[in-house]
Design brief:
Elements (H helix, E strand, L loop, with lengths): L19 H8 L15 H8 L19 H4 L2 H15 L9 E5 L7 E2 L4 H5 L15 E2 L6 E8 L3 H4 L4 H29 L8 E4 L7 H10 L7 E4 L1 H8 L7 H10 L9 E4 L7 E5 L5 E6 L3 E2 L1 H6 L5 E11 L5 E5 L5
Parallel strand pairs: 1-9, 5-12, 6-7
Antiparallel strand pairs: 2-3, 4-11, 6-8, 8-12, 9-11, 10-11
Helix pairs in contact: 4-7
Length: 338
Amino acid sequence: MNYESVRLEKGMYGVPGKSFTQVLEGMDPSRDYAGTPLEGLDAYQRQLKRFDIHVGGPCSDKIEKFFATGDSAALFPEYLSRAVRQGMEQANLLPSLVAATTQIDSMDYRTIESSPSEEDRALKPVAEGAQLPQTSVKIKSQLVHLNKRGRMLTASYEALRFQRLDLFTVTLRQIGSAIARSQLSDAIGVLLSGDDGSMPAETIPAAGAVPAYSDLISLWSSLSPYTLNTLVASTSAMKDLLSISEFKDAAAGLNFQGTGKLISPLGAKLLHTPQMGPGKIIGLDKTCALEMVQAGGITTDSDRLIDRQLERTAISVTAGFARLFDGAVRALTYRDKT
């Protein structure tokens, strides 16, 4: 089917287990455009081209362009979702924390857990004919707590119809950034306190009022046999870390001043998280510490968007987090000066 003859309707947003773009791809597969000028565009982008809608740049169209026809109006909720997703991706630190992401289609989910002992991890030689040691994997008793995060758009179509899409996209990206920051706070809470808030991460107390290089060495060694590859710190903790003499050598300073990349203590990636409380630095093995659970993607009230042209429209994301291997997370604590 040619992309110019696809019939668009709001019912395409209600297909279970599929996004609007996935439904479009089923009707107009991108593989059919290999070797053509449209190669590299997905099904949604081809529909924007069909209706000559430019959503970015100084020559972007006005919002009213989406509502010129019934078919083109069906593209508007997906535009909102994509703009919010862009904002989430720009401000998202979760890929540096999450070991696995699970998509679910319900509000109830239990993850797995495994707590091997030191003897289990050693994997000692097994005599001929003897039974191999076992690793027990079971379902956790508590559900993963999912939080719904989002914003309500209250502007009317009449108030926005002459605004450029490029400008409106900036607002939507800020909504996405706020959602990403809230999800990061949820992830930090689970790392520090466990899935249900009753399993705090093991703490390593600093020797003094501020963290020292020796404290980071203790944090690094306490994670064994896991690898310390990620450090999470608040603004005040970042200042304390970057003031440690071992991280103030000339080469590290030039790299920070020239590229903006933060110094990496002990080879770990250093993440600045202003929403984290003072007096703590989280050290973890990113490969096995945290699971992210998502109940669908970005949700918009597509009926209201298409039929009533904005008014009050909810944009939301539902997600939660679960700690996988408790031993893969440690918290360095100290008496914050502030």
